C-alpha cells in the first residue's frame, strides 16, 4: 500500500509536469506563429523560428516520454491493486477453510466425548452383568473397551 501511494504521488507529479510542458509547447507554438506573421528582420525570425521549432520538437518528445511513463505506472498500480485483491481473496478462502476445520474438530471432539461416555456406561453395564452372571454360576466373557470402540466405530 505504501508503494501504491508512492506510485500515485509520482503519477500526480508526472501529470502536473505533463500539463506544464503542454502549456509551454502551446506558448512556444503561439510565439512561433506570431514571429512568422510579424514582419521584421528575416534572419532573426528564421533563427528564432528554428530555435522554437527545436524546443517544440523536444517538448513533444518529452510529452511522449511522459505519456509512456504514465501509462506504465498506471499499469503497475493496477497490477498491484489486483495482486492485493487476489491476496485478500486467498486469505478469505483460507480463513473459511480454517473455520470449517475448527468446526469439524469441535464436532469430532464432541463425538469422542460421547464415545468415551458410552464406553464408561458400557463398562458399568458389563460389570453388573458379570456380577449377576457370576452369582448365577454362568461364565461369560467380558468385552474390553477396545472391542466396544471397534464395534461402535465399525457400525457407523
TrEMBL record:
The keyword Coiled coil applies. GO terms for cellular component: I band. GO terms for biological process: intracellular signal transduction. InterPro entries: Tuftelin_GRINL1A/MYZAP/CCD68. Residues 4-111 form a coiled coil. Keywords: Coiled coil. Residues 134-156 are annotated as: Disordered. This is TUFT1 protein. It comes from Aegotheles bennettii.
Amino acid at each position: 500500500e505504501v508503494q501504491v501511494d508512492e506510485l500515485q504521488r509520482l503519477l500526480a507529479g508526472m501529470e502536473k509536469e505533463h500539463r506544464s510542458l503542454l502549456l509551454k509547447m502551446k506558448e512556444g507554438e503561439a510565439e512561433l506563429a506570431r514571429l512568422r506573421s510579424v514582419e521584421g528582420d528575416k534572419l532573426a525570425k528564421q533563427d528564432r523560428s528554428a530555435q522554437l521549432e527545436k524546443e517544440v520538437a523536444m517538448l513533444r518528445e518529452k510529452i511522449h516520454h511522459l505519456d509512456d511513463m504514465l501509462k506504465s505506472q498506471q499499469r503497475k498500480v493496477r497490477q498491484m491493486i489486483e495482486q492485493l485483491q487476489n491476496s485478500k481473496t486467498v486469505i478469505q478462502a483460507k480463513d473459511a477453510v480454517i473455520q470449517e476445520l475448527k468446526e469439524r474438530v469441535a464436532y469430532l471432539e464432541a463425538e469422542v466425548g460421547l464415545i468415551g461416555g458410552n464406553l464408561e456406561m458400557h463398562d458399568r453395564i458389563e460389570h453388573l452383568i458379570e456380577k449377576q452372571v457370576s452369582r448365577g454360576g454362568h461364565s461369560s466373557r467380558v468385552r474390553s473397551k477396545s472391542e466396544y470402540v471397534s464395534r461402535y466405530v465399525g457400525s457407523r
